[in-house]
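Q: For a teaching session next week I want to show students how multiple molecules come together into a single three-dimensional assembly. I've collected the sequence lines for a complex. Could you give me the predicted C-alpha cells for the whole thing so I can convert them for display?
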Amino acid sequence: MSTPVHKRGGPIRDPGDVLAGVVLLIASAILLFHLIPNYIGEPPILQNPMMSPRWLPRIVGWLLLGFSALLIVQGLLVDNTDKEDGRRIEKGPRRRFALMVVALLVYVTLFEALGAVISGILATLILFVAHPVRTWWVYGLAIVFPVVVTFLFVKVMNVPLPVMPF
Amino acid sequence: MEIISEVLQLFLHPENFLAIALGVVIGVVVGSIPGLTATMAVALALPFTFSMEPIAAILLLVGIYKGGMYGGSITAILIRTPGSPASACTLLDGYPMAQQGHAKKALKMALYSSVIADFISNIALIFFAAYLAKIALNFGAPEFFWLICFSLTIIISLASGSMIKGLLAALLGILLSLVGLDEVFGSQRLTFGNYNLMDSISFIPLLIGLFAIPEIVEFYRKKALPHIKAKASGASVTLSEMKRSLKTIVRGSLIGVIIGAIPGTGATAAAFISYSDARRRSPRRDNFGKGEVEGVAASEAGNNGVAGATMIPLLSLGIPGDVITAIILGAFMVHGLTPGPLLFQENLPLIYALFMGIMFSSLVLLVVGNGAIKYFSLIADIPKEILFPIVLMFCVYGAYAVNNDTFDVWLMLGFGVLGYVFNRAAIPAAPFLIGFILGPMFEDNLRRSLLIGGNDLSIFVRGPIAWFFIALTLGSILLALYRYVTARRLPTQTDTSQEAP
Amino acid sequence: MMNFLKAASLAVCSGSLAMAASVSTVQADEWPTDDVRLVVPYAPGGTTDVLSRRVADLLQEELDANVVVENRPGAGSTVATGRLARGGRDVDHTILMASPGHTIGAAIYPDLAYDPVEDFVFLQNLIDIPNVMVVPADSPYDSVEEFVEAAKEQNMTFSHSGVGSSIHMSGELFKTLTETNMTAVPFAGSGAALPALLGGDVDVSFENMPTVLSHIKSGDLKALAVTSAERSEHLPDVPTLREGGDYNLDQFVTTAWFGLIAHESFPQEAQDAMREALDAVMQREEFQNFAEQLGAEPGQVAGEEFKQFIASEVERWQEVADQAGISQ
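A: Of course. Below is the structure for the complete assembly, covering every listed component.
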C-alpha cells in the first residue's frame, strides 16, 4: 500500500477489467451476429439442433457475452487493482520495446525470404542491441547459434527449414 | 521355467540395453527442445528400426517416448517453454520455482515423480492390462462425453483469482479449438477460406506462443534490471517435500494410468486433471501456481503415468491410444508382429521381454534425467538478455517445423500477443489451454453419442461408467459451489459457476 | 574483434562444409543433378510417411542420389499438393507421395487452386491397401446380403476415421450404391474408431486391412467382404464386394492406393529415370516384404494409365461427395 495514485478516480473501480470486458463483449457480439452466420456452413437437413456445426460456437458466444458483461459489472463495483496478479510492471525505454517488435517482424516477414540462418542472426543481433548487451563476445553467439541450430534441425532432425535465400 | 529362460534369452542382449539408453537420451533431448516433440523423434527413428531385432526396435521407440515425456518438463520449468504439450501444466508451478532460485528442486521433483509414475504405470501395464483393456472397450462416446464434462470442471479449480476471467479464458479456448473443418459434415468453421486453418489451429505454435513469447515480450517491455545471479543449482528436493508429495504422485500416476488406458484422451489432459486434483486436496492450496513443489509433482506424475498405460490398449487390443503408440504399432507390424490378444497367445516370451525392457527404461530415465539436470540447470544461470533471443530463435524454428510453414510462425506470434494481453489483464492462460484441448472432444463425443444413439438421449445414461462420471461431474460442481459460498469472497459470482459448459 | 570474426567464419565454414558433404554423392550431367525431395503431405508416423521413408531409402540406392523426405501436412494433403502444383525452382527434383486424399480432397475441399489430374505427371502406383467391410463379432449379419437387407429396413451406423478418409468415402459409396439408410459416425483416426466397432457401438466399418487384420483373425471382428477387385491373400475366404454382384456392388472397387506424382513440368528425362528406379525398387525383396507386412498389394498402374485411374477416381468421389452432401 505504498502510493495509491489513480484510485477512486470515479465510479469505475477497476478500469482494466472494464476495458477487458468491453473488448470481449464487442468480440462476442461480432462472433454471434457476424462470424457465425457468415463463416460457419450449416447443412440443409438436421435431425437434431445439437448436431449443427453452429451449435457449440453459438453457445460459447452467448456465454462469452454473458461473462464479459459480468466482468464489466465486476469492474464497476469491485476493485481488484490491489491484488498481486502481475498486472503492474515498471515500463522500460521505448526503444528497447520497439527493437524487440522489429526482431519479431524480422522473423515472420523475412523467414522464408532470407532463410532461417540469416533471419535468425539478424533478429538475435537486434535483440542483443535492444537490451543492450555490452559484452562484445556475446554477439558472436548471435551468429554461432542460428548456424548450428539450423544445421541440427535440417540435417539431424530432418526439418526442412529454408536455409539460405539462394 | 522354460519360459523364464526364453524371456531372459530374448531380453539379455546388449543391443536391447543400448536401444533403451539411446532412446531415452534422444527422447529427453528432443523433448526438451520447443517445437520438436517426442512424436516427431519417434517417427524419425522408425525407419532406423526396420533393420533391428523386434525387441530392440520397439524398446528404442518406447525409450524415446518416455524420455520425451520427461524432457518436455525441463524447458517448461527453466524457460517457460513447454517442450511438449503434456508439460504445459508443469510450468504453472515449475517456472515460478525456477524464478525463485529453486530450478534444481523443481527439475528433481519432476524427474522423481516422472520415474515413480512411470514405474506405477508399467506395473499396471504388466499386471492389470486385461482388466484395464476391458474398461477401455466399454468406454464409448457417451462415457467419453461425461469424462470430458468432468474434466471441464477442473477449469473452476484452475481459475485462480477471478472465476469470471477463468471461465472467459476457457470459453475463448473452446472457441478457437472449433476453427477448422467440421468433424461430422466437413463444412468449414471460421477458416475464412484459409487452407492453413482447415486442420484446425496447430497446438504447438499455440503452446509456445501462449507461454514463452509473453515472457520474452515482457522482458523487453520492462526496464532492464541487472542480472541477479540465481544459484541455479539451488537445493534439491528435501525428504519432507518428497514425503508430502508422495501421495499426490501416486494419485497422479493412477489418474494417468486410467486416462492412458482409454484410447484418445492424452497425457495433457491427465496432467491437468492430476494437478487440479492435487490442488483441491492440498493444505497448501493457495500456493499452487506460485511455485509449489507439489504442483510440479502432480502434473508430471499425471503425464508420465500415461506413458506405460497407453501400451495397454496397444498390446492387448491392438488399438493405439495416441499418435506415438500408432507409430509403435507400425513398428510391430513391420517386424511381422500384430499387437492384440493373439500376440499374448502366440508370442508370450516376446511380450515378457518387452515388459522387462519397459521396466528397465524407468531406471534408465532416472539416470539419464539426473545427468540432464546437471547440465540443463546451467541454463538458469544464463543472463536473460542472452538466453531470451536464443529461446526465441528456437521457438520460431520449432513453430515452423510443425507443418514446415511460415503460417505457424505467424500463429505463434499471434498467440504470443494474446498471451501478453492475458498477462496484462490478469486472465489465466491455463483454463484457455484446457478449453482448447477439451472443446473439440466435448463436441465430438456429444455428437457421436447422438449419432450412435439415433438422437435418443437415453444413451447418455446407459451404464455404470457413465453414471460414475455424471456423479463425479455433479460432485465437482457442487464442491466448487460450496467452497464459493463458504468463502464468500466475491458474492456476485456465486450463481455463475453453474453455467460452465 | 579478431576472435569474433574467427568464430563467425568458423561457424559459416562448418555449415557450408556440411552442406557440401551432403551433395557429394550426386553426379553431374545426368538427372538427378541434385538431392531429390520426396514430399509427404501428412504428418510423420502415418502409413504414408512410413511408406515414403521406406521407399526413399531404396530409391536412394537405385538413383545414387540423396532422397530427402519432407513432411508438409495440412488440409488432408491439399496444402502440400497445392504447393507442388504452384511449381518453384527445384520442381524438377521434387516428387510427392499421393494417396486417396489426392482424389477425395479434390472432391471435398472447395476452390482448390490446382487441377488434381492435369497439373501433375503420374509416375508410379506403388502399393494398394484394400479396405475390409467388418462388423462386430456378435453382429447378427454374416454376409453382405443379410446386412444390406437389414439396412434397407433400419438405420445402420458406420464408423470412419475422419471426414474425407477413404474409410469414410467407402461407407458413403456403399450407402449410395445399395440405397440403404446409413449414418456416418466420425472418429479422430482409426485408433479411436476401433473401440466403438469392437464394443458394438457402431454396426459396420470399411476399415483399412492392416488396422483390423489381427482382430479378424482373433475373432473379435467379422469380415463380410473386401473392397479390392480380387480377393486378398491375407483373407482368402472373404469374398470381394463385387463378387455378389447384387445391389449395384459390382461397381464397388476401392483401395487405399499410394503412388508418386510430380509437377507437370517434371522433365521427360527425369520421368524416365524415376520410372526405371521405381521399377527396380518394386522388384526389391525389402519392398515386397514391407508391402506384405502392411497387408498391401503391389501397385498396378504407372504413367498414363495411372493418370486415367486418378481421373476416374476424382470423378467418382465427386459424385459420392455430392450425394452425401460433404462437398461444401
